[in-house]
Amino acid sequence: MLRIVEQRSGSVAPILRLFFIVSFKDFLFTTKFNTPVIEQTFLDAIDRIIDEINSVRDIFDEFERITPHCFRHTFATRCIESGMKPKVLQKIWGHATLQMTMDLYAHVLPQMEIDKIELLENEMKKMDDMDMQIANERYEARRKQKGKVIELSTITG
Questions:
Q1: How far apart are CA 111 and CA 101, in angstroms?
Q2: Whose CB among 54, 70, 116, 151 lies 3.0–4.6 Å from 62's, allowing a Cys bridge?
Q3: One digit per residue, pLDDT tens: the chain, 157 residues?
Q4: pTM
Q5: If 0-12 CB within 10 Å is exposed, 13-18 middle and 19+ buried, where does residue 39 land?
Q6: Which residues lie below 8 Å from residue 149, measured CB to CB, with a gap of 6+?
Q7: Using an 8 Å Cβ cutoff, are 95 and 101 in contact?
Q8: Residues 85/88/90/94 CA torsion (nearest 10 deg)
């Protein structure tokens, strides 16, 4: 489209080029003219890539078909997994309500909760290990101060 405009009128093209550069600078997939890729072109490219991947795979291990919308869900899921607040994600996606965002991406939260509990358990184990080490150090320090400590094993045995 940009090339056609350049050929028809010399004065409009720089303005349109600036418009495209400013308007579409944050797009993930653009043409060499920095304009959005037509959806069907994008879908065809994804299908070709998947066909190539599947050509070397077993029929039971084939890669599933995906759409450009899958990238949106993957991005949102990774954002939540990395700790982004759902309210921030709601604003990024332009969802009208936080509930809409949570309905779409709440499936990520259960695994995150498990991961956080495991992290807490690991930290508590470290604290237990440190407590045992501190207790042993105190025991040894008192034993050295008093000269002799009566062991339980000698009393009961």
A1: 17
A2: 54
A3: 444 444 444 555 555 555 555 555 667 778 887 778 888 888 899 999 999 999 999 888 898 888 888 888 888 888 888 888 888 988 988 889 988 888 887 776 676 667 777 877 888 888 887 877 887 787 777 777 766 555 555 454 4
A4: 0.47
A5: exposed
A6: 139, 142, 143
A7: yes
A8: -170
